[in-house]
From TrEMBL:
Enzyme Commission number(s): 7.1.1.8
Reactions accelerated catalytically: a quinol + 2 Fe(III)-[cytochrome c](out) = a quinone + 2 Fe(II)-[cytochrome c](out) + 2 H(+)(out)
Oligomeric and partner information: The cytochrome bc1 complex is composed of a cytochrome b (QcrB), the Rieske iron-sulfur protein (QcrA) and a diheme cytochrome c (QcrC) subunit.
TM stretches of this protein: 243-262
Entry keyword annotation includes Ubl conjugation: no
Protein name stated in the entry: Cytochrome bc1 complex cytochrome c subunit
Organism this protein belongs to: Streptomyces gossypii
Length: 270
């Protein structure tokens, strides 16, 4: 039998194997490295936001809320209030407070949104708390207005009245008018319970229910809102309507009756 001659390896075989190995390595890197790199970039960005927020906090907030957000006699602790509380209070201009008082009013914000985000990142790092909601959470699109109205009348109308036009509370405090308030800030107020307002976490009022309440408020306070009963008298409900009827309606009837009686008496004398 003839001996089988040994097969010679092609001179380019080693080069092909090397190229294949390089291609496989590159493919694996492409598949897995970007995710790790994105996470690293996100962590780095978050750390930078916390650092810059800490610097802003030291200048504008620490005098009242104390070093590390632990609070002082002039301001409450911020540990655990979360980013949503900062976004609401700073984003609406309530903080920093212009002066001590029963309640901090809404005013022009002192910080830009980017600076507010940095402050929120720092305060969020002090302890777990409600995060800033996403647009999908507070956008009225797809919301149930009937459910939102029922929930608002049950949980909120006692202070804000039936259409969110606000009202007086005790000791100089008040429930602010919700007309024209940003949708995100309404949602955050329910999350965090600013000032005299109680908080409504998702265990009490679900995220969907909060979305429905936001949609209801934006609808009843819009320029296109329809009031089939005529002038809404501040939207405070049947008490104001009854008072209006008694004072003006009954008053007009009495005045008319007096006028008719006077005319009749005068006619008889003539």
């Amino acid at each position: 039998m003839k001996k089988l001659s040994a097969r010679r390896r092609h001179p380019l075989a080693a080069l092909v194997v090397l190229l294949f190995a390089l291609a496989a390595t590159g493919g694996l890197y492409t598949a897995f490295a970007p995710a790790d790199e994105a996470k690293a970039n996100q962590a780095s960005s978050s750390s930078l936001a916390i650092k810059e927020g800490k610097e802003l906090y030291a200048v504008g907030c620490a005098s009242c809320h104390g070093t590390g957000g632990k609070g002082t006699t002039d301001g409450p602790s911020l540990v655990g209030v979360g980013a949503a509380a900062v976004d609401f209070q700073v984003g609406t201009g309530r903080m920093p407070a212009a002066q001590p008082g029963a309640q901090a009013p809404k005013k022009k914000p002192k910080y830009t949104q980017a600076e507010t985000d940095q402050l929120a990142a720092y305060v969020a790092s002090l302890g777990p708390g409600p995060s800033v909601p996403t647009k999908d959470q507070y956008s009225p699109n797809g919301a149930d207005l009937a459910n939102g109205g029922e929930l608002f009348r049950t949980n909120c109308a006692q202070c804000h009245n039936f259409t969110g036009e606000g009202g007086a509370l005790t000791e100089g405090k008040y429930a602010p008018d919700l007309g024209g308030v940003d949708e995100k800030h309404i949602y955050e107020a329910m999350q965090t319970g600013p000032q005299a307002m109680p908080s409504f976490p998702d265990t009490l009022v679900t995220a969907k229910d909060k979305k429905d309440i936001v949609a209801y408020l934006k609808t009843v306070n819009s320029d296109e809102a329809h009031t089939p009963g005529g002038y809404k008298l501040g939207g405070t409900g049947p008490v104001s309507e009854g008072l209006f009827a008694w004072v003006f309606g009954l008053g007009a009837m009495i005045a008319t009756a007096v006028w008719v009686a006077a005319r009749s008496t005068k006619a008889k004398k003539s």
